[in-house]
Write a structure and sequence with these properties.
With about 250 residues, the protein is an alpha+beta fold. It has 2 domains: about 5-115, no CATH class; about 130-250, Immunoglobulin-like, CATH 2.60.40. Helices cover about 35% and strands about 20% of the residues. The protein has a 5-stranded antiparallel sheet. It has a 4-stranded antiparallel sheet with strand order 1-3-4-7, with helices on one face. The protein starts with a helix and ends with a strand.
């Protein structure tokens, strides 16, 4: 597949809206192509902000498949002269169309997560610092200590999980300083060892404590731990593994 076609597919890749062949081709490009990595990082910044601001609700199982099918059908229905691979103007048009699809998808997902399973509107998400203080006083809440990696011994903090296991907050103090082109990225590791990104974030330059919602999609018992790594802007170019050094881990028990 031509490089320019793969470049133009990166917005859809960031949304998980490609089929397996397209996804494999884009990931092969991302391993060696700096421009592709930078584009993906830009889309991941937006996606990470959405993930951290949205209340943690699991959407209906059919939603992702339905949206991917619609996106694929729309791509296939476009006339040949408007698909990627033509001149610069057509490529710009294609990318604008992909970005519009991304925006529409974000709106749909935001609408879904703001509804409970019975369709009842939900209140806006509680700020993580407020939720942390609430969980501190909650009977039955679970606490898990941060284990800093070598060189980050000044780092302290904990993961606080609600008694029902449906809400969780990380509190972090004395995170290491980042360069201007770096961010922290949260990783959740399930019992099979599969990593899932929990979004990107930065530290408070004043050194105050950082509070972060942890977007568990299953009870905490389904996970073996958390980790935070240092990554390029927008996070790791790979959806299931870090590329930078680990800052700390949070073991969640056997």
């Amino acid at each position: 597949m031509e490089r320019q076609i793969l470049i133009d597919l990166i917005p859809a890749y960031a949304l998980g809206a490609l089929d397996s062949d397209e996804r494999d081709a884009v990931e092969a490009l991302l391993r060696t192509d700096a421009e592709a990595q930078a584009l993906l990082a830009e889309y991941r910044v937006v996606a990470g902000h959405i993930a951290l601001l949205a209340p943690q609700r699991v959407p209906p199982a059919h939603l992702a498949g339905d949206l991917r099918a619609r996106l694929a059908a729309d791509r296939a229905a476009r006339p040949p002269d408007s698909r990627p691979g033509g001149d610069a103007a057509r490529r710009r048009g294609w990318r604008l169309w992909m970005l519009a699809a991304a925006a529409a998808l974000a709106v749909v997902i935001a609408a879904v997560v703001l509804l409970d399973q019975d369709g009842t509107p939900q209140a806006p998400p509680m700020p993580p610092a407020t939720l942390y203080r609430e969980l501190l006083d909650q009977e039955g809440a679970s606490r898990y200590a941060i284990v800093p990696d070598e060189g980050n011994e000044a780092l302290t903090g904990e993961l606080l999980v609600a008694a029902r296991g449906d809400r969780a907050v990380l509190c972090m103090t004395s995170l290491p300083a980042l360069d201007a082109d770096q961010v922290f990225q949260l990783w959740m590791i399930d019992r099979e060892g599969t990593r899932t990104s929990g979004g990107v974030f930065t530290a408070d330059p004043a050194g105050e404590s950082i509070y972060l919602h942890v977007p568990f999609s299953a009870p905490v018992t389904a996970y073996q731990g958390l980790g935070v790594s240092i990554e390029p802007p927008g996070g790791s170019p790979y959806p299931d593994r870090p590329t930078g050094p680990r800052v700390f881990s949070v073991p969640l028990g056997s």
